[in-house]
Structure formats: structure tokens, C-alpha cells
Amino acid sequence: MYKDRLSDLPECIILHILSFLSTKLAVQTCVLSTRWKHLWKRIPSLKLDSYEFRTLKMFSVFMSKILSLRDTSIALHAFDLSRRRNIEPRLLNKFLKCVSSHSTHLQRLGISLCGDIALILSRVSSCRALTSLKLSLRSKWSGPKEILFPKSLNLPLLTSLDLTNFAFCGDEDGCADPFLEFTKLNSLVICDCNVIDAHVFTISSETLVNLSMHNNSSLYAIIKLYVPSLCTFNYTGSDHILEISGSGLSSVKKVNIKSRRFSASMEDVLVLFSWLLNFANVESLTVTSTVLQILSLVPDLFDVKLRSLHNLKSLKVKLIQIEEGSLLELIEDAMLKKAAAKSPEEVAKLREAFETWLEPPAIPDGIVDFLRQNSPSTEVNIKTKYPSAFNLKQIEESIKGAKINNYRSRFVTQSTTDAAPASAAEPAAAASPNIHLCLGEKVMDSEEFSFCLLYE
What is the DSSP secondary-structure string of 360-372? Predict the structure, then answer.
């Protein structure tokens, strides 16, 4: 006979388990036992995401009820709010009032919405106990508007900071160093950010271990890193490659560089090559195939004796198809120059092949051996979601000892695994299962049941 061991757990354990769920799922879960009926009111964390609801009105009603009915005597340690489009001023004030009332013990705060920026940042500044902060803000006013990162954000205990859509102001010398005051910072993520009145963007931190920079195409500045404890560097870009220099980069052990649409120039080629020299002691290097294609454009590359990557143990390459743009033009020009060194006939054949949609090799010949010249035992792992788009046999033969893994997107359901994706650039959209609860004669979906429970 089945024994309900879950209900026998202490309430504190059940609350801890529920705190890992979104607030919507936590409310739904509490229907499983009459004992849990009001348990969601005492969960020490809130995770509210409008994308979990069919309409913004439903989300607004749900959020308003959650904030009204929650047991205010229970300390709130974490609050994540994600709201697409503008948030109603009344609802924003209710949210910020909740944040302020728990400011002395709120440790993790995530805000992604469009609203009154100044009001939001002023309330965030009062949360002195924060250890983790994630901000993705947009102005409620129409049209583009710079969101300046406040210099007065005094959060002495902060260890994790994730920023999206911010601008950093430079000082009188044209330098921006916005994170100097965060003396305990361990992890930093910068996404879609730029600088104003600065030609140098500095990141100074004695404690920073993980740094991620994603899609900062407007960040036209030299990046200087003074991060002696840095271990992991993640970079995603689609346009120009940021020039990175500084001290302490030799401490980095893991580097991930992803790119889909580099609009590369020869300046970008040399900047990317300088990264290999700066991150000299990397043990794990993960790149997209476009990164290798850019590196292959370094003049006389294979005559260069690499002064780094002596400790490289793992090289992972994700194959992606190159798209039209300046990178493709640079690669074709380089291939034509090599053909011209052989004969005019080779040039003519190659031009004709380009006209019939010949694509450059996903992994240029010799580039992998170049990267592991100082560590020949490096394990090479090549992955692709779209094996039919590449000549995998040619790649495997050109790279001795490489392992090629064909894997499917985790977003593809079992019934559609044999269907070809519509685009190599876009994985199939995630399909959220439609949960139904049968109560008597009426079948209610999960959203309807949440509201029934909250209004009860």
C-alpha cells in the first residue's frame, strides 16, 4: 500500500522544497494536501513571471493577490519579478513596498520590467543585505532612453551582479570603472550595455571569479580587466570584438566564446588572436566554429609559434552555419588568395563554386592543430544540432582524434525528433505542457485553479 511520506515531512522542509518553484507552481502544488492549503503564504521566496500566464491581466491579478495574502510575518529572502511590457504604477508600488518592508533580510533580488527606473533603483539601494542582484530595466517612456548605472548603489555584501540594458558613465579622464565599490563581488554578468563619455571600460575586482559579457555591441571602448582571481570568462557577441587587456588574465582557466553573426574586420581578427595570448593558461576552451574561422584569417597564422595554451586540456567546438556578411567576404577573399598562389585556373574554379553556394569549411584546415600545438593531448569535442548541414566526415578526417557528437535540441519533443528545424539559427520553441486538474465534474486548467485558491 502506498504511504504518503511527503506529507510526513516537517513543514520547514516542505517550505524549502516549495521555494525552488515559481510562485505559480507553488500555489498549484499546495492543492495536493489540505494541510498545505495555505502553506504557499509562508514560502520565504517569490518568483513571479508574466510569461507563465496567458494574459498580462491574469498575471497582474495573481501578483496583486500574492502580495496581499502573503504572511507578512515571514521574512522574504528572495524575490524575482519578470514582467513584459509596462507595469501598472499601482502594481509597481505594491511590489516596491514589499521589497522595502523586507530590505533588512532580502538577500536575492531580480527585477526585469519596464517602469519608473529612478524609483526602482532608489528602493534597490535600500536593500543593504543583498548578496545577489539581477536588473533588466527599460524606461516606461516611449523611445530609446539610456539607463545610467547609479554610482551610489551601496551594497556592501553583494557577491553576484547581473545587469542588462545599462550605460556606464566615464570620469574626467574618459574611464569608467563602475564596480570598484563592490568589494565582495564573485560573479558579474553584463548584457546589452554600453558606455557614455568613456573610451576605457575598466573592471577592477580582487574577488571576481566569473565574468560574462553578452551582446554588448554598443560598448565601443577598450576593456581593461584587473581581476587577479578570475577563473571563468564567457563572451557572446554578434558584431565587433571587444579589445581586452589588463593584469591577472593568466589566472583564467575556462573560456567560452560564442558568436553567430560576427561582422568581422581584420582589426577584429587581430583582437581575437590577442585574446589567446592574454588568456595564456586556459585549460578549457569552448568556441563556435565562426570563432575558428575568424582566427584562421590571421596573416601567416601557421608560421606563428603560439606562446600560450600550454595547459589546454579540452577544446569544444559548436558548429554553426556562417551567415552572409563581412566575415564571409573575408574568408572568401582569403581562399581566393590561396588559390591565386597556385594558378589562375584554381581561382576560376573557386569563383564558380562560390556562385553555386559553396560554403567555406566550418573548421578551417590546420586551425585545431595550431591551437593545441603546445598541448597535443588536448581532447577535441565537436557538437552540432544540425549534422546534415555540415560535412562531418571531412571534419573528422581533418582533425585527428576529434569526437563528433550529434545532439538534438532539448526543446524538441519526442514526437517531433525526426522533423527538421525550420532554421539553423533558431531552435524549436519550448512547448509547455498543459496541466489539467479535475475537480468533480469540472476540468480546470492550472491558471484557473490558482485563482480559485487565491480568492478562497
Answer: PPSS-TTHHHHHT
Query: Cell digits for 365?
Result: 584546415
**Summary count for the chain: helices (H), strands (E):** 12, 21
Q: Is the pTM of this model over 0.70?
A: yes
Q: How far is Cα 427 from Cα 408, in angstroms, rounded to an integer?
A: 9
In a 10 Å sphere around its CB, with 0-12 CB exposed, 13-18 middle and 19+ buried, how is residue 307 labelled?
exposed
| Closest to 103 (Cα-Cα) out of 128, 66, 67 | 128
The 10s digit of each residue's pLDDT in 96-118 is 999 999 999 999 999 999 988 98
Identify the bridge partners of residue 249 per DSSP, sorted by sequence position. Answer: none
Taking CA atoms, 192 is separated from 165, 215, 304, in Å, by 5, 5, 35
- Can you tell me the distance from the alpha carbon of 272 to that of 275, in angstroms, rounded to the nearest whole number? 5
61-74: b or e for each residue (b if 16 or more CB lie within 10 Å)?
Answer: bbbbbbbeebeeee
> Which residue in this structure is represented by grid cell 582589426?
267
Q: What is the pLDDT of residues 377-436, one digit of tens each?
A: 999 999 988 888 888 887 877 787 667 766 443 333 333 333 344 333 334 333 333 333
